[in-house]
Each structure stands twice: as C-alpha cells, then as structure tokens.
Design goal:
With 268 residues, this protein is of the alpha/beta class. The chain has a domain at 78-263: Nucleotidyltransferase, domain 5 (2-Layer Sandwich). Helices cover 37% and strands 15% of the residues. The protein contains eight helices and seven strands. It has helices spanning 8-14, 34-47, 63-75, 78-92, 157-162, 190-198, 217-231, 244-263, and strands at residues 100-110, 118-119, 127-135, 141-148, 180-183, 202-205, 238-239. Strands 1, 2, 3, 4, 5, 6 and 7 form a seven-stranded mixed β-sheet that branches. Helix 4 runs parallel beside helix 8 (244-263). The model has no long low-confidence stretch (mean pLDDT 90).
Length: 268
C-alpha cells in the first residue's frame, strides 16, 4: 500500500504550531482544512509538479489555495518553529551530536529569477541560488541560509553558525555551539577561523594548496548525504518560485521531515 504523505503522528506535531484561523461570518464557502492544504503542499514538494497540476482527486483544494497557505505559514514563522521543536526533541532523545558541526553549500538553478538569485559560477552564469547548510556530526540539519549563487561560502560561514538556535531538551542551559566546526577548502579564511575561536569553536577546515588525503572526508560525507536527502524532494532540485521565501519554506519543510525521520526511523 502507498504510504500516507502526512501520517497522524506528524500532523499532531505540526498542528499546534499553525496559526489559529480568524472567526468568519456565517455563509460562504468554508476554508480548506489545514491538514488537506498541508497534504497538497507535501505532494508538490515530493513530486515537483506545478501548482496548477495538483490533482483535484486528492481533495486538497486547488494549487493556488495551497500556495497561499504555504506563503501564509512562512510569513508566520511556522516552519522555523516546527524545526526548532524537532531539534529540541532530538536532543532530548540524545540524537544530536555536538562534537562537531559540518557546513556545506548547494547550487540551485532559478529558472524564474526573482530575489536571492545571481549568476551561478558552476552553471554558465545562469541565474541561481545557493543554499548554505549546517548540520550536526551525524547530518541532522540545524540551520539554513539562502543567498544568490555568486556569494562565496566563506562569507556565510559565521552568519550560518550564528543561525543555529538554542537547542534545549536536556538538563542545563540550551546549547547551540559545537566543539569543532568542519568545512572544505571553500571555507578557509584566517579571519573566519579567528571568529570561530572567539566563539569557543575549534575550526577544522581544509586549507588550499595542501595535499588531499587528510581523512576529513570520513566526517564530511554526512552533510553531503543530507544535501542529497534534500534533493530527493523534487521541488528543491530547481527553484521555480520567484519569491525566495517560498523556496526557503519548501527547504525548511524538507528539513523538518528529515529531522522527523531521524527521530522516527520507521517514517520515510
């Protein structure tokens, strides 16, 4: 049997974070239920089809209704709130590894242009965006930043580290800093390494003009796997949204599902 896009356990986690609907006057068509709208959004995220092709047989309303709901929830900060809740749950379950954090970036072609786009240095200067990702030592996504494709990874290193929220879930103060931070040669900068040490983080960054074979790849592949997991959501492979916030919302929703999958290995 086909697996449900939105199982009851995941819906029960998301529902309290959604904004309450305002009271409506009597009469008129009732609004689409939040669970049906979220199911339609997940279908678009996983399949990558255009909004207008959302099958009516699914009972999720029209594509534009789901599009407006996605935008509304993004502006309300719903996806960041849900992601943060899952990170707290993962730390409570001792599924987060603060021994080191990993950083990397991924280019995405932006076929429709829009904000947060620029000429991509790896795609013949076609418009694109770059997703900067930081994870724990096991590849759990912690924070994401979105920039034009022509922004260097090293320029986003410190803002990305500072974007990690305070993660609670255990006795004591919430935690947001790792013991070490690892990145490839794109993040090599004496200034940035000094700023990391000021934050009590030991930088483990490959340096340019040095031989390969340092052995750091056995740690770095975790974040490469996480970026690959994001690409399994077909809507993330190419950016169709002109509004950068909507693509970012899709990315955060995918990160939420990855965190939920880590917390509940039986979910796929």
């Amino acid at each position: 049997m086909a697996k449900p896009l939105l199982p009851d356990e995941l819906w029960e986690l998301i529902q309290p974070c959604l904004p309450k609907k305002p009271l409506r006057p009597k009469g008129g068509r009732p609004p689409l239920e939040d669970r049906k709208a979220l199911t339609g959004i997940l279908f678009i995220l996983r399949t990558g089809i255009p909004w207008e092709y959302l099958p009516q047989e699914m009972g999720c309303g029209c594509g534009m209704t789901c599009w407006r709901r996605l935008r509304k929830w993004y502006l309300a900060g719903v996806w960041d709130k849900i992601h943060h809740f899952l990170l707290n749950s993962l730390r409570h379950a001792k599924r987060l590894d603060f021994s080191r954090f990993l950083v990397d970036g991924m280019h995405v072609r932006a076929v429709g242009g829009g904000s947060q786009t620029g000429p991509s240095p790896v795609d013949r200067r076609k418009l694109g965006s770059k997703m900067h990702q930081i994870t724990d030592a096991q590849g759990v996504p912690l924070a994401t930043r979105m920039t034009p494709a022509n922004i260097n990874e090293v320029d986003e290193l410190i803002p990305l580290v500072d974007a990690v929220p305070d993660i609670a879930g255990q006795v004591g103060h919430p935690r947001r800093r790792p013991e070490k931070l690892q990145g490839d040669r794109a993040y090599q900068s004496a200034t940035k390494e000094h700023e990391l040490r000021e934050r009590n983080i030991d930088p483990v960054i490959a340096h340019r003009r040095t031989e390969h074979g340092s052995g750091l790849g056995k740690f770095r592949w975790f974040i490469e796997r996480t970026l690959s997991w994001h690409k399994q959501f077909r809507r993330l492979r190419v950016r169709y949204e002109r509004h950068a916030g909507l693509y970012y919302a899709f990315w955060k929703l995918a990160s939420t599902i990855i965190c939920y999958r880590t917390l509940n290995p039986g979910f796929s």
